[in-house]
């Protein structure tokens, strides 16, 4: 009985995505006649080629890759460094600093939206990828928390032995802790990739020219560009969401393992 409930529940949650795939393979008339059915009356695979050819897909793809991969690398390195410092370097006030970092998680993004906009405007960085990329290099409280908890689980004897051998804190992090951090690095990288790849609000605010638009912003204007061509819109949406789905399925064990490992202390 429980298995049946899980199967039915999974289908309910997966149905909107399955309907997107089905709609992307229909004709305009098929969308109107098909209703909520999942099987197109006429299969039209050319929708994908038509959708990608109706706007500068490759240019937008490059912008999305730049605004995603750089934040992934930046978030992983910064969160790892800060998490290691908070977990292993003995310093007065470290607990208070960590509490302040966690407290910033309570602030919704809308609170800092206007100050950041004013800051980047004064720095003359409007209509560029800098406002999308640079904020992650100042650290993410959630990922700092994950790395700190992960490093607290590692044996303290590793640090003691390295200090006896004359290693400094940076070398201890680089040579000992970072190689042992694969599960949490993968979890952080995947979660940050999904967040940056699907980021719509920030690029929509700062990117005004076609040169720097990312794929989520391009999809928002896709419907107005192509009228009410729902099959093309669904085809383009499927292409955009595929990287997130593929990465999640390939790395889901590492994500679950890394996140659950940090919560066992």
Would you write up a description of this structure?
This protein is mainly α. The protein is built from 15 helices and no strands. The longest helix has 33 residues, at 230-262.
Provide key terms for this protein.
265 residues, mainly alpha, MetI-like fold, 2 domains, 15 helices, globular
The sequence of SSEs as H and E is HHHHHHHHHHHHHHH
Structural class: mainly alpha
Taken together, the total number of domains comes to 2
Strand fraction: under 5%
How many H/I helical runs? 15
List unreliable stretches of 5+ residues.
none
The CATH class of the largest domain turns out to be: Mainly Alpha
**Distance N to C terminus:** 35 Å
* CATH level-four homologous superfamily name of the largest domain: MetI-like
**Computed Rg:** 23 Å
CATH topology of the largest domain: MetI-like fold
**Shape field:** globular
- Give the averaged pLDDT, no decimals: 84
Number of strands: 0
Largest sheet: none
Report helical residue fraction: over 70%
Under the CATH scheme, the architecture of the largest domain is Orthogonal Bundle
Task: Record the SSE blueprint.
Blueprint: H1 2-24, H2 28-34, H3 46-53, H4 57-88, H5 94-103, H6 109-122, H7 130-133, H8 141-153, H9 156-164, H10 169-177, H11 182-197, H12 201-206, H13 215-220, H14 222-225, H15 230-262
Helix pairs in contact: 1-15, 3-15, 4-8, 4-11, 8-15, 11-15
């Amino acid at each position: 009985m429980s298995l049946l409930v899980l199967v039915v529940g999974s289908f309910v949650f997966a149905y909107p995505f399955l309907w997107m795939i089905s709609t992307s393979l229909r004709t305009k008339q098929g969308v109107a006649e098909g209703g909520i059915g999942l099987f197109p009356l006429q299969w039209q695979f050319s929708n994908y080629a038509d959708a990608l050819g109706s706007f500068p897909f490759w240019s937008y793809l490059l912008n999305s890759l730049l605004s995603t991969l750089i934040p992934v690398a930046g978030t992983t390195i910064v969160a790892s460094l800060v998490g290691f410092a908070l977990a292993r370097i003995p310093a007065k006030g470290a607990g208070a600093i960590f509490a302040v970092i966690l407290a910033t998680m309570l602030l919704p993004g809308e609170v800092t939206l206007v100050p950041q906009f004013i800051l980047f405007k004064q720095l003359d960085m409007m209509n560029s990828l800098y406002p999308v990329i640079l904020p992650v290099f100042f650290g993410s409280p959630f990922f700092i928390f994950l790395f700190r908890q992960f490093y607290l689980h590692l044996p303290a004897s590793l640090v003691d032995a390295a200090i006896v051998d004359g290693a400094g804190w940076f070398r201890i992090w680089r040579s000992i802790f970072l190689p042992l951090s694969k599960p949490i690095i993968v979890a952080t990288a995947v979660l940050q990739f999904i967040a940056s790849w699907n980021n719509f609000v920030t690029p929509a605010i700062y990117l005004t020219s076609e040169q720097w638009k990312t794929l989520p912003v391009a999809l928002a204007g896709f419907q107005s560009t192509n009228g009410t061509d729902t099959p093309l819109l669904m085809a383009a949406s499927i292409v955009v969401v595929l990287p997130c789905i593929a990465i999640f399925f390939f790395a889901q064990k590492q994500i679950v393992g890394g996140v659950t490992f940090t919560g066992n202390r």
